[in-house]
Amino acid sequence: MTAVLQVGSLHAGYDKLVVLAGVDLEVARGEWLALLGPNASGKTTLLHCIAGMLVPSAGSISICGCTLRQDALGAKRHLGFGCAPERLPGLLTGRQCLEVYAAAKALSAVDADVLALAEAFAFTGMLDRFVGSYSLGTRQKLAVLLTLLGEPALVVLDEAFNGLDPASALVLKRHLRERVSAGRCGVLLATHALDVVERYSDRAVLLLDGRIARGWDREQLAALRAMPGEGLEAALAAACAPSQGQ
Amino acid sequence: MEVPQASSLPAGIPRGLARRPHLAATLLRWRNAYHLRRVRVLSVTALALALVVALLAAASTSRVLEWLAGNPVITFAISAGLFGLAAVRRQARMQADAATSWLAALPATRSTFTRLALGSAAQLLAFALFVELAGVTGGISASAASGVVLVTAIGAVIGTLAGLRLLGRAAATSPGWHYASVRHARRHWATAPSLAPLSYWPLAKGRFFGRPKMTSRVVLLTLLSIPAGLHDVPGQVAIAVAAGCITLVTLLSLSAAVVAIAGEAARWLAPTTIRSWTFVSAFVWRVALKQAAVLAVVLILAGAVDYGQALHVGVKVAAAFLAASCFCSAAACIWACRQAGLGAAGRGA
Known about the structure:
The complex is a heterodimer of chains A (246) and B (349). With 246 residues, chain A is of the alpha/beta class. Chain A has a domain at 1-78 and 153-160 and 185-246: P-loop containing nucleotide triphosphate hydrolases (Rossmann fold). Helices cover 37% and strands 25% of the residues of chain A. Chain A has nine helices and ten strands. The model of chain A has no long low-confidence stretch (mean pLDDT 90). Chain B is mostly helical and 349 residues long. Chain B is built from eleven helices and no strands. Chain B has helices spanning 21-36, 38-57, 59-70, 72-98, 112-136, 142-167, 200-209, 212-224, 235-269, 276-305, 307-340. In chain B, helix 4 runs antiparallel to helix 5, helix 7 packs across helix 10 and helix 8 (212-224) crosses helix 9 (235-269). Residues 1-10, 169-178 and 345-349 of chain B have low confidence and may be disordered.
């Protein structure tokens, strides 16, 4: 499997605060990687670095072979990044947001796949309403649709299931799994939803104190899922305990 | 259900802007804002036009414009400075926005230069129209108007280009970050239930409204309205005017802060059982106290110059201002309570 994302020795922070202190990460095409970590551990910072929204102080990020530092536009052509729902423009309609994104990605039309997902989300009725009138869940649906436009090789999502109703969340999980299984993309999902990690992702890593502290592969996740009791939740709590106690 | 048709996709976006999502989104936002809030847009435009007419009719406008026409070097310096500052600020705002924008991860240009140039061009066009109108209505001669416009335009171009180069990439990282460093923890903070901390909210917002960057602009504009050499204005009067401006901005910022955030505070507390008058008093008292303190200091200083006037005029003006400010603040809070459904006054009660 080819790597769609390679992150090497990434250091990043805000002013004097160091948030990421040497993160190494790789996501292959056809792989769903879950990024776990306690609050303020740097998950969103890492995703913002990958999306080119935050300039890291050191390290390298490469998307489908294009390094973000040297060929930002080339790298972003392969990237689908889920923006925060509250950042969507309230004065544009959902359709206009799709139009702007599609035009910026040089598409002649919105992918049929994305339109089918919009139908499955029961979102098409909301297309001509202003984003400002959307609920959190509806904004989240739009953010997901924008992310998946243009068949990106790397899909990066930050808490994408926040606010989604159970039916829509299930639709999204299945849709992403289908894309990943078909080898159309690799998914990097930052989440606290452990059921998604246990049931759908291929691998999970724990970000702690600015570094990848632990990883679970497919077999280990399957073993945790089969364990009676708390499974991944207990394993995660145990891994985080020394750090949070400091 | 209707599904967006493939052929209709880029229809809403002008062809030239297809690969410039920031410009396309801004254009669509303006268009939507006009359609959605037509009355508000037209009202603001009408108000702006009324202000322009009033300014054109004022005698001091002609004097200022004539002075600008007679001092092209200073006009150029003012224009270059203001447009340069505007360019720096606009660019800083764009960089801050780029770090969190919904368009940040797109493989497309940010159109920084075009957006900057468009902003500066719009400001220059508005000023040029104003000056030419003054020329047409006889406020100043047509040749003087053309001269002012030309010098201002040259200053604007040079100022904008200088502003573009000044900021560079300095602010490219880390705006809007959410990791707050705690400088020192207050003892017993948030351990006893109290509404007192609520009063710090409008105070902090008022400090933000009246920050030096804003205050300096008001002082600068006020001082510019006293053209040197035209009147016999002694230096101490100019200093007194500047000090008065700073005081007034401080006082008005505090009142404006209460009005601006009363709604947000009421919405935040709406699920609680707090009564509306308790909310009003908790929210407003520290602002009123600070305004009273500022006015007291001003009165003492004025008393040192002219005790009688300070006592007879100053106290009355200060008391009237304080009363008006308290009334406005309380009215804004009560209205916010009603809107949010907070306390007994709420719509939902």
